[in-house]
Design a protein that fits this description.
single chain, globular, 9-stranded antiparallel sheet, alpha+beta, 3 helices, about 160 residues, Multidrug-efflux Transporter 1 Regulator Bmrr, Chain A
Length: about 160
């Protein structure tokens, strides 16, 4: 069951890519690289790695997505990595247990629940493209510890306006 959760600002290191529904690996596969980059600098992740959706244009199969890893304190990044902060605020949140292919249905349910609750998401729509203030999929399961994708947990956190 979805709920509303208050989160503080959360610093992270990330990378941004423009992708399609079939090229998610171009951004998602960078998470391990970011974790390794942090380890080389003596830093451990301060939370679950995530994908942050900036824009979604399904009609043209174009998404701008970040892969990010939370850090304890803001830090400088290099190369195509950048440092940023997830905004503080109220988020509609829920958890999906199972294969990532099931996320679409859970996302649809979360958006419908928000509408039924009279909530307004931190999102604007322009020319058929959704622009999100902060829409997250957090990977709660380490695939090295649990390789069966049917046993993965993914948290969804969509910031409210």
């Amino acid at each position: 069951m979805p709920q509303i959760v208050e989160f503080p600002e959360r610093p992270y290191v990330g990378v941004r890519r423009t992708i399609t529904m079939t090229t998610f690996g171009l951004v998602a596969d960078r998470i391990g690289e970011i974790i390794g980059w942090l380890a080389e600098r003596g830093q451990a992740p301060a939370g679950a790695p995530f994908l942050r959706y900036e824009t979604i244009d399904m009609a043209n199969d174009r998404l701008v997505v970040q892969a990010g890893v939370p850090v304890a304190e803001p830090m400088a990044a290099e190369g195509d990595l950048f440092a940023d902060t997830l905004p503080a605020g109220r988020y509609a949140a829920t958890t999906h247990h199972g294969h990532p292919d099931g996320l679409f249905e859970v996302i649809t349910q979360l958006l419908k629940w928000g509408e039924e609750q009279g909530l307004t998401f931190d999102r604007t729509d322009k020319d058929g493209t959704e622009h999100w203030g902060c829409r997250l999929e957090l990977f709660m399961t380490d695939p090295r510890a649990e390789p069966d994708m049917n046993n993965w947990d993914t948290d969804l956190q969509f910031r409210l306006a």
